[in-house]
Specification:
The protein has about 220 residues and is an alpha/beta fold. The chain contains seven helices and six strands, in the order βαβαβαβαβαααβ. Helix 1 links the parallel strand 1 and strand 2.
Length: about 220
């Protein structure tokens, strides 16, 4: 992994921070733009960031995401548009910026951070499930289109992870009940997600593409 350059979005905390740290451990040079540098809600910000990028990128991890809970009756248009923009449309637009260079160099590793809520759902997750389901479809479509060029595209779908977002959306008592529904009886740690992502981004991965891989302690099995 020496000399490889990666971009990890949403790397200021949680899963993204763990992924960036794990890739650095492998000797990867990791770009972790702030929201001021790369605002995924803004197409002009995306254009400006990549126009100023001085290095060809080998690895992309689309990790940034938002998950605003809300029922159908209370669902506001800004929540719909913002969630779809950050969780689905921005990853596509970022890939569209980087894919030509990866195709030219005949090398690329792209990992999209999905969610088990793209496979199943529960009340209050309409827009999040929409976006993460779409991200799985985007992953499959791009894997087919880019496979000939040795650009591998995969999606990692975490279950309940011990992050700030999980704690914001689930009070402590609720989390304790949730743990009992997971076969492994605990939440996933961000470093465990990072290990899987690091493998998919590495030269050790030579043939896995187009897959959505759940890392959920067995939650989807029940």
């Amino acid at each position: 992994m020496k000399q490889k350059i990666a971009l990890v979005t949403g790397a200021s905390r949680g899963i993204g921070l763990a992924i960036a740290g794990r890739l650095k451990k492998d000797g990867v040079r990791v770009l972790v733009p702030t929201r001021q540098e790369l605002n995924l809600l803004s197409e002009s910000s995306i254009d400006a960031y990549f126009a100023g990028l001085k290095y060809p990128l080998d690895i992309l991890v689309n990790n940034a995401g938002i998950n605003i809970l809300g029922s159908l009756e209370g669902l506001k248009d800004p929540v719909i548009s913002d969630t779809l923009q950050v969780d689905l449309l921005a990853p596509l637009r970022v890939i569209r910026k980087l894919a030509p260079g990866m195709i030219k160099r005949k090398y690329g590793r792209i990992v999209n951070l999905g969610s088990i809520w793209g496979e199943i759902t529960k009340p209050g997750r309409i827009t999040y499930t929409m976006a993460k389901s779409g991200l799985g479809g985007l992953t499959r479509a791009l894997a087919v289109e880019l496979g000939l060029h040795n650009v591998l595209v995969n999606c990692v779908a975490p279950g309940y992870v011990n992050t700030e977002m999980t704690r914001q959306n689930n009070p402590k008592k609720v989390l304790e009940k949730i743990k009992k529904t997971i076969p492994m009886q605990r939440l996933c740690e961000p470093c465990e997600i990072a290990e899987l992502v690091a493998f998919l981004c590495s030269d050790k991965n030579t043939y896995i593409t187009g897959q959505t891989i759940a890392i959920d302690g067995g939650y989807l099995c029940i």
